[in-house]
Amino acid sequence: MATTHKTRMLIIGSGPAGLSAAIYGARAGMEPIVVQGLQPGGQLTITTDVENYPGFREVIQGPWLMQEMEAQAVHVGTRMMYDIITSVDLSGPVFTATSDSGDIYEGDTLVIATGAQAQWLGVPGEQELSGKGVSACATCDGFFYRGKKVVVIGGGNTAVEEALYLTNHSDEVTLIHRRDTLRAEKILQDRLFANPKIKVVWDKRVERFMEGEDGGLRALALIDTKTGEQSEILTDGAFVAIGHAPATELFKGKLAMDETGYLLVEPGTPKTAIPGVFACGDVMDHVYRQAITAAGTGCMAALDAERYLAHRDFAEAAKVEA
Ligand code: FAD
Ligand code: NAP
Question: What is the per-residue pLDDT across 123-163, written as a single tens digit (0 to 9) for each?
């Protein structure tokens, strides 16, 4: 039978943003509920080494970090629900989310932490070699390719920024693009073309990621998009940078978004245009997209949710007294 779960703070998403909001919310006595979604623990559960999350001298594993974060959130009083939200009603004053299981979740505040997913090429070898040479995040994984050959696939701002970033670690960076002009802004293109460590390969589509004898990435099979000619490029690492898709389908027509679907918030805060509804992590941040920034904005969302409820409760108490 369907159940209605009520909480002072309903959190959708269990990546670093949602779990950080939960830790702060629980410690503030809001008894949060986290609805975990299809990917409990979020994007870090599909990676291996994480070397840039503060607090750990040695390399840690993404799935382990997320298990620890979840355990910490539960330890301080969060209720975890293995469920997927399928629709939301933001008309308030209580925010309602309906789920796949049929259960209803009601929150006096709502924290949206549904994240974003990197878009992939969907060609053979890509998934199999993910984490073994194929990545979608240069800031996360570039360090592992110090002094090695890397390629970046894509022609937008992200691809150019990733290529420029990778020159911090590698002297041989190749940008592979399917056309003969880039979509990236002119200023980024100027920097790219001026960088002697970067070569651009035009008009090439990746047909396949090829495995080496050591089980890691060895090469990419390419096809010329104009002539159909086939070629191969040897590489140690490949960074797919063809865009990200924020998980905001649920909020279309209900909350303001930018042209690529990221939720818009009041600058410098996690506040959406609806008082009591907050957005944190990758779902509202197309620039930084890191676990630490997601966790930071999750913390901000919980602090703002607590303040929102304190003001609301004070105003209601004053009304009763009057
Ligand atoms: P996510 O981690 O994307 O979590 C989103 C959550 O929302 C998930 O739990 C999902 O199940 C849930 N959800 C979505 N829709 C629904 C729904 N309808 N109902 C309920 N729940 C829902 N960052 C680093 O700082 N260091 C790294 O080394 C690093 N490595 C990375 C490696 C890879 C392969 C990838 C893909 C990313 C990496 N990142 C890294 C980036 C980092 O993982 C993200 O910035 C971070 O996870 C964003 O956190 P988030 O909480 O905003 O969202
Ligand atoms: P994007 O602008 O959509 O560019 C995606 C790139 O990937 C395009 O060059 C596209 O090729 C290519 N591509 C898409 N699908 C492909 C496929 N299947 N095979 C091969 N190539 C494929 O995405 P983005 O670069 O991630 O940027 C997203 C948004 O964030 C943009 O609005 C961007 O301006 C913004 N952003 C801004 C900054 C900044 O301001 N510094 C930094 C990063 C991102 P085509 O060109 O042929 O379509």
Answer: 999 999 999 999 999 988 999 999 999 999 999 988 998 99
For residue 206, CA distances in Å to 88, 158, 295 come to 39, 18, 34
CA distance 284 to 247: 10
Q: Which atom of ligand 2 is nearest to the CA of 242?
A: 7
185-214 residue pLDDT tens: 999 999 999 999 999 999 999 999 999 999
Q: Do residues 11 and 37 make contact, with C-beta atoms less than 8 angstroms apart?
A: no
Residue in 132, 137, 130 with CA at minimum distance from that of residue 294? 137
The mean predicted confidence, pLDDT, of the chain is: 96
Q: 282 an active-site residue? A: no
**Annotation says 285 is catalytic:** no
Catalytic site residue from 83, 108, 137, 282: 137
The residue nearest atom 41 of ligand 2, judged by CA position, is 157
Q: What angle do CA 46, 52, 58 make, to 5 degrees?
A: 90
Q: Are 89 and 96 in contact (CB under 8 A)?
A: yes
> What is the pTM (predicted TM-score) of this model?
0.84
